[in-house]
Design brief:
The structure holds two protein chains of two kinds. By secondary structure, chain A is of the alpha/beta class. Chain A is about 45% helix and about 20% strand. Chain A folds into three domains: about 10-80 and about 160-255, P-loop containing nucleotide triphosphate hydrolases (Rossmann fold); about 280-365, Arc Repressor Mutant, subunit A (Orthogonal Bundle), CATH 1.10.10; about 375-440, no CATH class. In chain A, helix 5 links the parallel strand 7 and strand 8 (about 195-200). Chain B has three domains: about 45-270, MetI-like fold; about 320-355; about 360-575, MetI-like (MetI-like fold, Orthogonal Bundle). Chain B has helices at about 1-45, 60-90, 90-105, 110-125, 130-155, 160-170, 175-205, 205-210, 225-235, 235-265, 280-290, 290-310, 320-355, 360-395, 400-415, 415-430, 435-460, 465-470, 475-510, 525-535, 540-570, and strands at about 210-215, 215-220, 515, 520. In chain B, the strands form two sheets. Chain B has a two-stranded antiparallel sheet. In chain B, strand 1 and strand 2 form a beta hairpin. The chains are: A alpha/beta, B mainly alpha. The interface between A and B is medium-sized, with 32 and 31 residues.
Chain lengths: ~450, ~575
C-alpha cells in the first residue's frame, strides 16, 4: 500500500534462514507495508508468527534477508531513524532510578543535564509518575514500570513509536487502565509522536486501539487481512460494528488454510510441508475444551468462549486447532463444534480416553505415525530424539523444531504410543518398555 | 518535645560524618606519602638480593609493599578483564580463540609463568628495581586475572536481548552503554570474582616475592618473602608475627573494601522485585554520609562523568571518512592477527625444539608425578567433601548455627593456606607423616572452604516446603539425603568442587616442594617437578610439566565437570 506521505515503507521485506544444505526456512514471506502519519497501526497475529521480527526490521534493529525498508523514501542502511520502542519486558535498567532511565536516551543525544532533567520531569508528569523519579524500577509495580517504559520512549519524541506487546506482561486490570490512559494522550494530541505501531496478539486490544489493523498469518508470516477501523474513540465494545470486526478477525485467524496469497517462486523454498505444524496444546487441555463444549450443547462462538474463560485468543487457539486436527471438533464461521469422536473422548474414563486419543493421533498426526513406524522398525524399539529433531529441523526453525518435538512427545506419552527417557534423550516404544520391565521382573 | 527528638537524631549523625571526613583526609595524606616512597624505591637501583629481615619491626613496610603489589596486580587484572571480556563477547571470530585460550591459561600454574615474565621484565628495566617489581606484580596478575575475565565475558553474554535493543534503539554511545548497561550488569559477578582473585593473590604471595631462577636468586621486600625467610630459618616467632600481619591485613581489607563494595554492588542485582535481605556495611553507610565524599562527587566526579558522556556522543552522521577509517582499522587488525599467528607458530617451533631435549628419566618423572598429583588432588577433594558436606548442610539447615558459624568460617577461609604451611609442616613432620601426606593436608587447607561455602548456600536454597514434605512423609535419613539434600545441593556442590579442584591443582606447586630450615623438602608430584624445574632453570622440563598439567586440568574439566554442570543446570535446578 504505497502512499506518498508514508513515514515508513517496507518493500518486499522477508526473512529466511539458510540451512547448511542450501534449503531455506522462510519465517516472513515478502511483505509490503506502510506506516502513515497520524495513525495507530496494529500488527496482529498468533505468537511465534514473526510479528516481533517484523517490528525489529522496521526499526532497523534487524536486517531483512531480502527487500528494503524505506524511511521517507530513503533506504534504512545503517542509519538509525528517530524511533522508540516500548518493550514487553519493559527493558528498564534496574540499577538506574526512574528519572535516570528516562534521561538515558537524552544523555545519548548529548543534551545538557539541566534541560535533560526538565524534559524528563515533564514526561514523567504526563504519564503520572511525578513523585517516583528517584525510585528504582524494582520498587514499582508492573504497570508503573511500563509507564517508565512509555516515558522513556516519549521523551525522545520519536517519529514513530513502536510497541512490542506492551500490555502482555501486565494483569488484565492494569493493562486496561494503561490502554485507556494511552488513548487519552493520543486523542488529546499529547503524545509527542506522529504514529504508533503496536504489535499484539490480543484481538480486542487491536480493535480497541488501532486505526488500521494488519492481521498476520504464520508459516511463514504473511498478511492475511488489512483493514481500517472506522470508529471514533473511545470505542464501545458492545457496539455492533465492534463485535462485527472482532468476529471477522476471529474468522481470519481460525481458518488458516483459506485465502492463501499466491505462491511465490523463490527456488529452494520447500513446498507444502510434509509435517503440518502441530499446535502446542496439551491433551488435558483438549479434553477440557471438549468438556466445556458439551456443557454448552456441543457448540459455541469462539470469541464468546475466550471472553468467558478470560483467555487470550492466543492461548485458546492452539487447543482449538489441536481438537480440530484430531477431528474431535470442527470450526465453522467462528464457531467451534464438537464431533461424535470428540464427545466419546470427552465422556470416556481416563484409560478409554487414552485409547481414543491414541487412535485419533496415529490417524491424523503424520509425525506421530512416522515416529511410531520408525520405532517399530528398530528391534529394541528405541531411537534418540536427535534423530527426529534433525528431521524436523529441515522444516522448522531450530526452536520451533524442538517445540514440535516436545509437543509430539507430550502427545505420544499421553496416548501411550511411546515413552521418552529424558536423561538418555531416547524415544522408546511403550510396548517394548513394558515387555522389558516384565522380563526384568 | 518534637524539636528535642529531632536534634537528638541529628547531632550524632553530624559528628559521625565529621569524623569520617577527618579519617578520609588522613587517608589521602597517607596515600600521598606512600606513593612518593614507593616511587623512590621502585625507580632506585636494582637490588635483586635484598636481605629480608626477620624482625617484626620490618613488617609494616613489608606488608605495605605486598599490599601495593596485590593492588597494582588487581588493577591490571581489572583492565585486562574489561578489554578481554568485551572483545571476546562481541567479536565472534575472536571469541572462538579467546575463550578456549582462557580455559587453558586458567589451568597453568603461576610458577610456570615465572621464568618468562621475570626475565622479560628484568631485561626491560635492567638497572632499576622497577623491573623486578613489575615481574612480581605480573606473576600475581597471572594468578588473579583469568576467572575475572571469564566472569565478565559470561555476564556480557547473558545480558537480556531487550536491554541490548533498548540501548541500540535509544542510540546509547559506546561509553554510555558500557557505563549504564554492561558494567552494571556484570558488576556483581565481577565483585565476587575479584574477591576470590585477591584471595588467590595472597595465597601465592610467597611464591611470587621470593624465588630462585636457575642461578639467579630474586628477593623482594614483602610479607611473602618475610614468611618464606622465616620458614626456611625455622623461626617460629617470626612465622607467627608474619601470619598475624597477613591475617590482620586480610580482615582489614575485607571490612574496609569488600564489605562496602558488596553492599554497594547490591543495587546492580538484576531483579525486577526487591529482595528481602540486602547486604549492609557500616563503612559504606559512613562514606555515604560523609560530606567530603559528597563534595568531591558533586564538584569533580559528576561533571567529569558528564564530560565523558558528552565526549563519546557521536557527532553528526557516519561520514565516508570514518567509514574509511574503520576499514583501515580492520586491515590493521588483520595484519596484527597475521603477526600474532607468526609469533605463535615460531614459539611452537621453539617449544618443540626445547621439548625434544627431554631425557627419558625426565619424561618418566613427569608421568609419575602427574599420576601422584592427580591422586593427591582427588584425595584432598574427597576428604574436603567428606567433612564439608555434612557440616555445610547442618549449618545451612540451621539459621541460628549459620549466624555463628558463617563469619567464623569466612575468617578461617581468608587465611591464606600457604602462610599456614610452615606450621602444618612442623606438626606433620614431627608426627612422621612426611611431605607426601602433608601436601594433601596443604591442598585441603586451601580448597575445602569452596566446598563448605557452596554447600551452605545450597542447603539454604532448598525450599522450606520440600523440607516439610520430607518431614510429613517421614523420610528416613537415607531417603532424606538421597531424595532431598543431595539433589538440592547438587548444583552448588558441583560449583564448589570445580573451584576446589582448580585450587588444589594450583596449590600442588607450593605444597609439594618446600624450602624449610635451609633444606628443600619435596615429594613425587607434578607440582614438585614444576617448582624444581623453576629453581634449577630447567626450562624444557618446566614446559613439559606445565603442558601436562594444563592438559590434565582441561581434560578433566571437559570430560567430567562440564557434564556435571550441564546435569546440574537441567535436572537439578530448583526453579522458583
Amino acid at each position: 500500500m504505497p502512499s506518498v506521505e508514508a513515514i515508513v515503507e517496507a518493500e518486499k521485506v522477508e526473512k529466511f534462514y539458510e540451512q547448511p544444505d542450501g534449503r531455506r526456512i522462510e519465517v516472513i514471506a515478502p511483505i509490503d507495508l506502510a506506516i502513515e502519519p497520524n495513525k495507530i497501526i496494529a500488527l496482529l497475529g498468533p505468537s511465534g508468527c514473526g510479528k516481533s521480527t517484523l517490528l525489529r526490521i522496521l526499526t532497523g534493529l534487524a536486517r531483512p534477508s531480502a527487500g528494503e525498508v524505506l524511511w521517507h523514501g530513503n533506504p534504512l542502511d545503517g542509519e538509525q531513524p528517530n524511533v522508540a520502542i516500548v518493550f514487553q519486558s519493559f527493558a528498564l535498567f534496574p540499577w538506574l532510578t526512574v528519572i535516570q532511565n528516562v534521561e538515558a536516551p537524552l544523555k545519548a543525544k548529548g543534551i545538557e543535564p539541566d534541560e535533560r532533567h526538565n524534559r524528563a520531569m515533564q514526561i514523567l508528569d504526563t504519564v503520572g509518575l511525578d513523585g517516583f523519579e528517584t525510585a528504582y524500577p524494582k520498587e514499582l509495580s508492573g504497570g508503573m514500570k511500563q509507564r517508565v517504559g512509555f516515558a522513556r520512549a516519549m521523551v525522545v519524541e520519536p517519529e514513530v513509536l513502536f510497541m512490542d506487546e506492551p500490555f502482555s506482561a501486565l494483569d488484565v486490570l492494569t493493562a486496561e487502565n494503561l490502554r485507556g490512559e494511552l488513548m487519552e494522550l493520543w486523542v488529546n494530541k499529547k503524545m509527542p509522536t506522529r504514529s504508533i505501531f503496536i504489535v499484539t496478539h490480543n484481538i480486542d486490544e487491536a480493535i480497541l486501539l488501532a486505526d488500521r489493523v494488519i492481521v498476520l498469518g504464520r508459516d511463514p508470516a504473511r498478511i492475511r487481512a488489512d483493514f481500517e477501523v472506522d470508529m471514533v474513540h473511545p470505542r464501545d465494545r458492545k457496539s455492533l460494528r465492534y463485535v462485527e470486526l472482532v468476529d471477522y478477525v476471529y474468522k481470519v485467524l481460525t481458518q488458516p488454510k483459506s485465502d492463501l496469497p499466491p505462491p511465490h517462486d523463490i527456488k529452494g523454498v520447500p513446498g507444502p510441508s510434509k509435517y503440518p505444524r502441530l499446535p502446542h496444546a496439551r491433551p488435558g487441555g483438549i479434553a477440557g475444551l471438549l468438556e466445556i463444549l458439551i456443557d454448552r450443547n456441543g457448540k459455541d462462538d469462539l470469541y464468546q468462549l475466550a471472553d468467558e474463560l478470560t483467555m487470550e485468543v492466543d492461548d485458546l487457539l492452539p487447543i482449538v486447532e489441536a481438537a480440530e486436527l484430531l477431528e474431535f471438533a470442527i470450526v465453522r464461521e467462528g464457531d467451534v463444534e464438537i464431533t461424535q469422536e470428540g464427545r466419546e473422548f470427552a465422556e470416556a474414563d481416563i484409560l478409554t480416553r487414552k485409547m481414543i486419543f491414541r487412535k485419533a493421533a496415529l490417524e491424523h498426526v503424520p509425525l506421530l505415525k512416522q515416529i511410531d513406524t520408525a520405532l517399530r522398525r528398530k528391534s529394541d524399539g528405541a531411537l534418540p530424539d536427535d534423530f527426529f529433531e534433525d528431521v524436523l529441523d529441515e522444516h522448522f526453525s531450530m526452536d520451533e523444531a524442538r517445540r514440535q518435538l516436545d509437543t509430539v512427545i507430550l502427545w505420544g506419552r499421553y496416548g501411550e504410543i511411546f515413552d521418552y527417557d529424558a536423561d538418555a534423550g531416547r524415544l522408546v516404544l511403550t510396548e517394548m518398555e513394558s515387555e522389558r520391565d516384565s522380563a526384568g521382573a | 518535645m518534637k524539636t528535642s527528638v529531632l536534634t537528638k537524631a541529628i547531632i550524632p549523625e553530624r559528628t559521625w560524618s565529621r569524623l569520617t571526613d577527618i579519617v578520609i583526609f588522613g587517608a589521602a595524606i597517607a596515600l600521598f606519602y606512600g606513593v612518593v616512597t614507593v616511587a623512590r624505591t621502585w625507580l632506585g637501583p636494582i637490588t635483586p638480593h635484598a636481605e629480608i629481615s626477620r624482625s617484626p619491626s620490618a613488617l609494616p613496610s613489608y606488608a605495605a609493599f605486598s599490599l601495593l603489589r596485590i593492588v597494582v596486580a588487581y588493577i591490571l587484572s581489572l583492565c585486562f578483564t574489561l578489554v578481554y571480556g568485551y572483545v571476546a563477547a562481541y567479536n565472534k571470530k575472536a571469541e572462538r580463540i579467546m575463550i578456549p585460550l582462557l580455559d587453558i591459561l586458567q589451568s597453568i600454574p603461576v610458577l610456570s609463568f615465572l621464568p618468562g615474565v621475570m626475565l622479560a621484565m628484568v631485561a626491560l628495566f635492567p638497572s632499576r628495581q622497577l623491573g623486578m617489581e613489575l615481574g612480581s606484580i605480573l606473576l600475581i596478575f597471572t594468578g588473579q586475572v583469568w576467572n575475572m575475565a571469564f566472569s565478565f565475558y559470561s555476564s556480557i553474554k547473558s545480558i537480556p536481548r531487550e536491554l541490548h535493543e533498548a540501548a541500540r534503539i535509544y542510540r546509547l554511545s559506546w561509553w554510555q552503554r558500557f557505563i549504564q548497561l554492561e558494567l552494571p550488569y556484570a558488576a556483581i559477578g565481577l565483585v565476587w570474582n575479584s574477591m576470590m582473585s585477591v584471595a588467590g593473590g595472597w595465597f601465592f604471595l610467597m611464591a611470587c616475592e621470593m624465588f630462585v631462577l636457575g642461578d639467579r636468586d630474586f628477593r623482594l621486600p614483602g610479607l611473602g618473602s618475610y614468611l618464606q625467610t622465616a620458614a626456611s630459618a625455622g623461626d617460629t616467632g617470626a612465622i607467627v608475627w608474619g601470619l598475624a600481619a597477613m591475617i590482620g591485613i586480610i580482615v582489614f581489607v575485607d571490612q574496609l573494601v569488600w564489605r562496602p563494595v558488596i553492599a554497594w554492588a547490591d543495587k546492580f542485582k538484576f531483579e525486577q522485585v526487591e529482595s528481602a535481605s540486602a547486604p549492609h556495611s557500616l563503612v559504606l553507610d559512613a562514606l555515604r554520609r560523609s560530606s567530603a565524599i559528597a563534595f568531591v562527587s558533586r564538584r569533580a566526579l559528576d561533571p567529569m562523568s558528564e564530560r565523558l558522556a558528552l565526549f563519546f556522543v557521536p557527532r553528526g552522521e557516519r561520514s565516508a571518512k570514518t567509514r574509511h577509517r574503520s576499514a583501515l582499522i580492520s586491515w590493521m587488525l588483520r595484519g596484527l592477527g597475521v603477526v600474532v599467528l607468526g609469533v605463535v607458530a615460531y614459539a611452537i617451533v621453539l617449544a618443540g625444539m626445547l621439548l625434544a631435549g627431554l631425557t627419558q628419566p625426565e619424561i618418566f618423572a613427569i608421568v609419575l608425578g602427574a599420576g601422584a598429583t592427580f591422586l593427591r588432588v582427588n584425595v584432598a577433594l574427597l576428604i574436603g567433601a567428606a567433612w564439608a558436606i555434612p557440616a555445610g548442610v547442618a549449618i545451612g539447615f540451621n539459621p541460628k548455627l549459620a549466624r555463628v558459624a558463617q563469619p567464623l568460617a569466612q575468617i578461617a577461609a581468608s587465611v591464606p593456606a600457604t602462610a599456614l604451611f610452615p606450621i602444618v609442616l612442623l606438626v606433620l613432620i614431627r608426627a612422621g607423616g612426611g611431605l607426601g601426606v602433608a601436601s594433601v593436608a596443604l591442598m585441603l587447607l586451601g580448597t575445602q572452604w569452596y566446598i563448605l561455602f557452596n554447600v551452605i548456600a545450597g542447603a539454604m536454597a532448598i525450599p522450606t516446603d520440600l523440607k516439610e514434605a520430607a518431614n510429613i512423609y517421614r523420610f528416613g535419613s537415607i531417603d532424606r539425603w538421597r531424595l532431598l539434600i543431595l539433589p538440592g545441593i547438587f548444583p552448588y556442590l558441583i560449583t564448589g568442587l570445580v573451584t576446589a579442584a582448580g585450587g588444589a591443582w594450583n596449590a600442588s606447586i607450593v605444597a609439594e616442594y618446600f624450602h624449610f630450615k635451609a633444606q628443600t623438602l619435596s615429594t613425587v608430584g607434578l607440582g614438585a617437578t614444576i617448582s624444581q624445574a623453576t629453581d634449577t632453570g630447567n626450562f624444557d622440563q618446566l614446559l613439559a610439566a606445565t603442558i601436562v598439567m594444563a592438559a590434565m586440568v582441561v581434560t578433566v574439566n571437559r570430560l567430567l565437570w562440564r557434564r556435571l554442570y550441564r546435569l546440574a543446570e537441567t535436572r537439578f535446578k530448583l526453579e522458583a
